[in-house]
Amino acid sequence: MSVRNVVAAVIVLVATLLLLTTTQSARAQQQRPELPQDVKDWMARNQVQRWAQMLQTGEKLFAEGSCVKCHGEGGSGGRWAPDLTDSEWVQSDGDLEGIRETIMWGVRRRDFVDPDRRFQMNPSGGMDLAWEDFDAIAAYVWSLNNGTFLPER
Ligand code: HEC
């Protein structure tokens, strides 16, 4: 075998290998199935369901826990703490994450905007909250100002 033949053979081999791997990866991509429409609908429906459950849990925690004692029924405000339904936010931007942070960390007296408040808000409002409870209460408080965005029944 001459050197030239060896070189030609190697080139043919490499080209074949390249061709094989590219067609195979193209086939693998084609085979990845598109998510069927009914599964997509199902997922969307369950997300709405999950959001509805969060709002419900948040409302319950708010009403049965410490929050209501200072912030009043439905967050309408009271002697000890501000109205949480007036879309005026002093401790955060009032977005979901900001509200959630306030609930997690509470508000120390030196951070009060209203000097007439007497008692500081402890982290978690002094409650024993699970991780997902923060999301739920924040969602509920957010919804008091923005609506629930739940579909009409
Ligand atoms: C001991 C009374 C007290 C309790 C209990 C309490 N808070 Fe507060 N909360 C306050 C005070 C006081 C402030 C801050 C007032 C200020 O900035 O002048 C505040 C601020 C907030 C804010 C920020 C409002 C804004 O304008 O940015 C949110 C949100 C909030 N509380 C939610 C809650 C939730 C939810 C609970 C229950 C887990 C709770 N609080 C329990 C007293 C309380």
What does this molecule look like?
The chain is mainly alpha-helical and 153 residues long. The protein has helices at 3-31, 37-64, 67-71, 96-105, 131-146. It has two domains: 1-32; 37-146, Orthogonal Bundle (Cytochrome Bc1 Complex, Chain D, domain 2), CATH 1.10.760. It has five helices and no strands. The N and C termini lie far apart (82 Å). The model has no long low-confidence stretch (mean pLDDT 93). Residues 62, 65-67, 69-71, 80-82, 84, 89-92, 99, 102-103, 107, 112-114, 117, 119, 121, 125-127, 137, 141 line the site of heme C.
Query: What is the rounded distance between the termini?
Result: 82 Å
Overall helicity: 55-70%
How does the overall form come out from the CA principal axes? elongated
Mean pLDDT score = 93
Structural class: mainly alpha
Largest sheet: none
Q: Say what the CATH topology of the largest domain is.
A: Cytochrome Bc1 Complex, Chain D, domain 2
CATH level-1 class of the largest domain:
Mainly Alpha
The share of residues in extended strands comes to under 5%
Unique bound compounds: heme C
Count of discrete structural domains: 2
SSE inventory with pairings:
Layout: H1 3-31, H2 37-64, H3 67-71, H4 96-105, H5 131-146
Helix pairs in contact: 2-5, 4-5
The structure holds heme C.
Heme C (HEC) binds next to α3, α4 and α5.
Q: Quick recap of the structure?
A:
With 153 residues, the protein is mainly alpha-helical.
